[in-house]
Amino acid sequence: MAIHQKGKSLAARGNALSDTFFQLEVLNGRERSAAQFKPFEESIKIAGFDQGKLLPSRIEIFQINVGKLCNQTCAHCHVDAGPDRKAENMDKATFDRCLEILAKYDIPTVDITGGAPEMNPHFRWFVEECHKLGKHVMNRCNLTIIVSNPKYQDLPHFFAENKVEVVSSLPHYSALRTDSQRGDGVFEDSIKALQLLNAVGYAQPDSGLNLNLVYNPSGAFLPGGQASLENEFKRQLKRKYNVDFNNLYVITNMPISRFLDYLLESGNYEKYMNALIDVFNPAAVAGVMCRNTISVSWDGWMYDCDFNQMLDLKVSTPGKSVHDFDFAALEKRDIVLNQHCYGCTAGAGSSCGGQVVE
To answer: What is the 3-state secondary structure (H, E, C) of 240-299?
Structure first.
């Protein structure tokens, strides 16, 4: 199955939420909902963070969103990616600038995301160049891309040759719950792709090839404990499909983009925001992804995290593009905060690498 589509992107539908400014107006009680929630900066100030500011630790991850083009249109996608997002694709010049930065600075990990990043025409070249630089390369693969078209079916071998860590979303170990979030046939194709990755050594003993799955809830509720979910995913996938993986990352749905649209349309927005705030965890703040990550958009702008990127909240430094990259200034910046940050600090915390508090 080439395309798994629950519907069109917010942008293609002309939905007001495709405007990042409008999303921020909603989050701050000025559109669609008059609900006023405690400002996130006030919560972290009470928790002991001076003046309600959050500062970075050191830049360890260079995360690059190479485009919004995707073979899927998932119901809760915070990127609003899909087959209709063809214009937003990183060009060669921006890739070249990213490589210059990676060659110059000691940033150990390159985290490549999308859309379906493999659909960018420069993807394979960029992975190979990062591998040559000795970087640890992570790729956020939606799995179905591997079996969507013959030209992608060698991706497991390509990933293995370049020692790429594969991180893939799988909403559930059942077809019904996965397909309800990501589109008809997604679960079946995801299982096929996981089996192909296992066949080339991923998640196999002593292979050094890591395959990690990402779980996020399918509705307006917070995820359960990561350890127990991981054990159940491993048991079910091995028993039913002989599939192995290394780790399960549990991520809280951010109240932005398509998930924000779902919350508003289902009448769950205020309830969900209150749920996030009620379990705000000061201990999770120190481990949030924005403290060790720089997020780069397909057109070269820089952000504190992938979620800020989707709200167009650029870094606070004077140079906001990779073409004005200033390593020292970025390591001393104030991280840009807003109400969606409650999503990363709820309960055990949430980041691109799963929960942040044991």
So the answer is: HHCCCCCEEEECCCCCCHHHHHHHHHHCCHHHHHHHHHHCECHHHHCCCHHHCEEEECCC
